[in-house]
Amino acid sequence: MTTSFSTHDSPKATNVILHAFDWPYSRITENAEAIAKAGFKAVLVSPPMKSHKTANGTPWWQRYQPQDYRVIDNQLGNTADFKRMTDALKSHELHAYADIVFNHMANESDLRSDLNYPNSAILQSYQENEQYFDSLKLFGELSQPLFTEHDFVKAFPIKDWTDPWQVQHGRIGGSSEDAGLPTLKYTDSVVKKQQAYLVALKRLGITGFRIDAAKHMTLEHIQLVWTKSINEGTHIFGEIITDGGATKEEYEVFLKPYLKGTQLGAYDFPLFHSLFDVFENNSSMEGLVNPYSVGQALAFDRAITFATTHDIPNNDVFLDQVMSEENERLAYCYLFGRDGGVPLVYSDLDTSGITNKNGKPRWFDSWQDRVLVKMIQFHNLMHGQPMHCIEHSEDYLMFSRGDKGIVVINNGSVETSIQLPEGRYSDLLEMEGVKVTLVADNGGEGKPAASPYQLSLPAKSCAMLIKD
User: Fold this and answer.
1) Catalytic residue status for 110
2) Which residue of the set 68, 212, 339, 395 is catalytic?
3) pLDDT digits (tens, 9 = 90+) for 309-355
4) How confident is the model over 49-65, as pLDDT tens digits?
5) Catalytic choice (99, 108, 151, 239)
6) Which CATH number fits domain 388-467: 3.90.850.10, 2.30.40.10, 3.30.360.10, 2.60.40.1180?
7) Is 239 designated active site?
8) What's the rounded Cα separation, in Å, for the pair 25 and 188?
9) Which fold has domain 17-385?
């Protein structure tokens, strides 16, 4: 079956983002040159603020429990480390993106009953080490709390996760014994302090923001914080987790209003679920021909596309959404091959404990994988080239990027051979068993073949072809 379509007339060039999840800022500084050489154009770092730290380390989720915005002082480094990192990224023409947590503050109910942030012990440490913390200060006055009890909504745990009011006013992680993470109101005072923090980060070199738990923030709060002046010169996207695209309840209740009420980007969970359905559940490849047309992908200029996010391997509730290694590779081939969205690549330091087929941490330095780097190269080479589906079946999909490249994915359980369009091609990925061969004569009576090249793809493999 052959079809032809274009997702849009004038594709917008996109920059691939490396999500250096829970990396110390110094490690990003040390690897800035290698990250740029791998083809990435931006790096997303974990929340740069004050959060709990110890000499023996803390779990990743502590970075998502803010104690103070006014200084960067956490397990990953401090303000000085952060500035060295942004300078290093800039020197290699890499954009720096920061993960932002504005929905809530740290749950410290086991330590105290008040809602002053930071707590009294931290305020005392500011006074005792005044010169040090003044050197780390981003804005404001450290002698007083950033927030008090008047800045929080009434404490109650979320029970109905499909009720927008509960999800956007209740506390995450709550129970009958512990109400959970204190949820901030969007008062003038809170909004001004959050804006002051964003402005300070922009002064430090940040050019992109990821809004953590955006699903839990009211649309009004997001609109008040991210004004035109705050947004200028930055790329911003929200985390709104859904179980699918259009017609799914979570999409209709949470993601659709966000997309309508802002001009910000968002994680493309609709497309992720389309990928998961095709590669993990062996649904027809037809589902990836043009998922946007059926509400199963976001608009090309709003989407942050991915094969995994930090929540999927690190939270028990999402573990069943971890793809196999071979399926994740096919998903990346599709994401880097297509012309829509900004691809984000997840890489951690063995946060989840999940291993690969070689028994090594699965996403540790995965950003340096040879095939992945070649996929990024293809993506960068194809900027601005429209996408057209050439051919597809239940098991395979072949599409072009203008007249410069072709992507072919075989999701089937057996090898398949596909006749390529006219032209000479070289395979950028060079995966094992993938072959481009010249058919000596299929035109009959000594006539030259109309399409002389044939591509052979083993089961669960893909190719990215550059037209010579």
Assistant:
1) no
2) 212
3) 999 999 999 999 999 999 999 999 999 999 999 999 999 999 999 99
4) 999 999 999 999 999 99
5) 239
6) 2.60.40.1180
7) yes
8) 32
9) TIM Barrel (3.20.20)
